Amino acid sequence: MDIINTMRPRVNGASLANHRSKPVCLLGRIIQVHPSGNHCVVETGDKVSVTVNFPQPLGDMIEGFIEVIGQVTGPNAVECYSFITIAQSNFDMDLYNEAIQMSSSNSSFYPLTNEGGQQQQANNGF
């Protein structure tokens, strides 16, 4: 499966279990990076700790916020396929979490669109 080019919902920690084995976009604050660089722990906007597993060890230390494109592998785990870090320290995670909850509970207003322009509802499990 081409996770990078696949439709994927933005999720918070509480909704990860509803997306088991599916592609997602997860944003969180980096809490801890394992010394091996193989994984890190992030805190989502709803204050859930999530382990992000990297395909290969990180070459550089990361901090701040991270947006992960990956596949849910467990209730609080994501296999990372791509990520970016965001150094901004004043990002409002509470407001971001509200937006995630709003888009999930009103998915008819926030449909996902595939490459052919066909719309597909995000199944966020709420």
Tell me what you see in this structure.
By secondary structure, the protein is mainly β. The chain is built from one helix and eight strands. Strands 2-3-4-6-5 form a five-stranded mixed beta barrel. A two-stranded antiparallel ribbon has the order 7-8. Strand 2 and strand 3 form a beta hairpin. The longest helix is centred in the last third of the chain and has 13 residues. The radius of gyration is 14 Å and the shape is globular. The C terminus is likely disordered.
Blueprint (SSEs and pairs):
Blueprint (H helix, E strand, L loop, with lengths): L9 E2 L11 E11 L5 E5 L5 E5 L11 E10 L2 E10 L6 H13 L6 E2 L5 E2 L6
Parallel strand pairs: 1-2, 4-6
Antiparallel strand pairs: 2-3, 2-5, 3-4, 5-6, 7-8
Provide tags for this entry:
126 residues; mainly beta; two-stranded antiparallel sheet; 10% helix
| Number of DSSP-assigned strands | 8
What is the count of DSSP helices, taking H or I runs of 4+ residues? 1
What's the SSE pattern?
A: EEEEEEHEE
**What is the alpha-carbon Rg in Å?**
14 Å
Provide the structure class.
Answer: mainly beta
Overall 3D shape:
globular
With strands numbered from the N-terminus, the spatial order across the biggest sheet is 2-3-4-6-5
Note poorly predicted spans: 114-126
Percent of residues in beta strands = 35-45%
Q: Biggest β-sheet: count, sense, barrel?
A: 5 strands, mixed, barrel
- Measure the end-to-end span: 25 Å
Give the overall pLDDT as a whole number: 84
Helix content: 10-25%
